[in-house]
């Protein structure tokens, strides 16, 4: 009996060790298995613990140094992706085999994409250009064509989560828009980057003043203080809304033809920033932009 018990203990121990090895291998390979077909945005969860990236085939999450694929809910192609403090708003298209209509119009999720709440213009519009105030929840969109809620193409905003829409006049805006950002806490404050500069509005987009001129702005966002984060072909900078205290971040030289596409600050850590590029690289800084770690390289998650 003692011999049988010893044998049983050995077998159980071997199985336990094998299970632990398998678990460790699975954890180690998690990042290596995460790939990005596209990068349609990026931002932080409200607690600042997780980076969200919509990537054509669902969401990718980065937490505690590891990348994870979305495992709950359908793997939709989210476009115009915009986080707010309790979740995200998005447009886009349904996953293959989904029963959801195409396109999404505007949908909302508060459970990391597991479920979607339909808000407006369902099966009518795919908004590629959309921004939402992190705490104001004001929604700004570039509307590409007339629809049941908007009589003509143009720039529109809603202050009541799509119950009503208003068209902005865009006075003073010059160039082809490339990026859009809504202030996280200040109502009516919105920024648009174009191929001629950065423009700032404090009246819901009716009038814009040039903030940075004669520059090709490829990405823009508001930080969670009172500054704008601006991606340019030659680099990345932070500048106060009053035009003072400009910081030029020291980032790695971009490859030829590559540009910054999205940039965000952690809402709970003013020293943490993340940005992505057209070549599907993602960089993270936890020391105020002094140094950067590459966490995605050409669409493949780094270990």
UniProtKB/TrEMBL annotation:
Classification via InterPro entries = Glycosyl_F510_1955-like (IPR054817), WD40/YVTN_repeat-like_dom_sf (IPR015943)
Q: Which domain of life is it from?
A: Bacteria
The protein's matches in SUPFAM superfamilies, at most eight in alphabetical order, are given as:
Oligoxyloglucan reducing end-specific cellobiohydrolase (SSF110296)
Q: Do the record's keywords include Membrane?
A: yes
Transmembrane intervals: 7-28
User: Which keywords appear in this protein's UniProt record, sorted alphabetically?
Assistant: Membrane, Transmembrane, Transmembrane helix
Signal peptide range: none
Recorded protein name is: Group-specific protein
- Give the source species: Evansella cellulosilytica (strain ATCC 21833 / DSM 2522 / FERM P-1141 / JCM 9156 / N-4) (Bacillus cellulosilyticus)
């Amino acid at each position: 009996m003692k011999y049988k018990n010893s044998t049983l203990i050995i077998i159980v121990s071997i199985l336990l060790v094998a299970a632990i090895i398998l678990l460790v291998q699975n954890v180690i390979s998690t990042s290596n298995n995460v790939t990005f077909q596209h990068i349609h945005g990026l931002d932080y969860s409200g607690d600042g613990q997780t980076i969200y990236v919509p990537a054509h085939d669902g969401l990718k999450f980065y937490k505690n140094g590891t990348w994870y694929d979305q495992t709950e809910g359908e793997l939709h192609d989210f476009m115009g992706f915009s986080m707010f403090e309790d979740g995200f708003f998005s447009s886009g298209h349904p996953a293959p085999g989904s029963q959801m209509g195409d396109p999404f119009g505007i949908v909302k999720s508060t459970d990391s994409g597991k479920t979607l709440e339909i808000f407006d213009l369902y099966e009518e519009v795919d908004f590629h250009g959309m921004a939402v105030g992190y705490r104001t929840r004001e929604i700004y969109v570039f509307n590409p064509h007339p629809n049941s809620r908007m009589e003509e193409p143009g720039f529109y905003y809603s202050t009541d989560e799509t119950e009503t829409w208003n068209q902005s006049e865009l006075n003073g805006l010059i160039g082809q828009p490339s990026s859009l950002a809504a202030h996280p806490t200040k109502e009516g404050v919105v920024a648009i980057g174009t191929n001629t500069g950065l423009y700032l509005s404090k009246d819901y987009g009716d009038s814009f003043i040039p903030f940075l001129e004669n520059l090709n702005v490829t990405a823009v966002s508001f930080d969670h203080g009172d500054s704008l984060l601006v991606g340019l072909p030659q680099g990345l900078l932070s500048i106060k809304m009053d035009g003072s205290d400009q910081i030029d971040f020291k980032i790695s030289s971009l490859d030829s033809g590559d540009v910054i596409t999205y940039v965000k600050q952690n809402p709970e850590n003013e020293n943490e920033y993340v940005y992505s590029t057209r070549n599907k690289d993602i960089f993270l800084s936890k020391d105020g932009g002094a140094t950067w770690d590459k966490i995605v390289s050409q669409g493949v998650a780094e270990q």
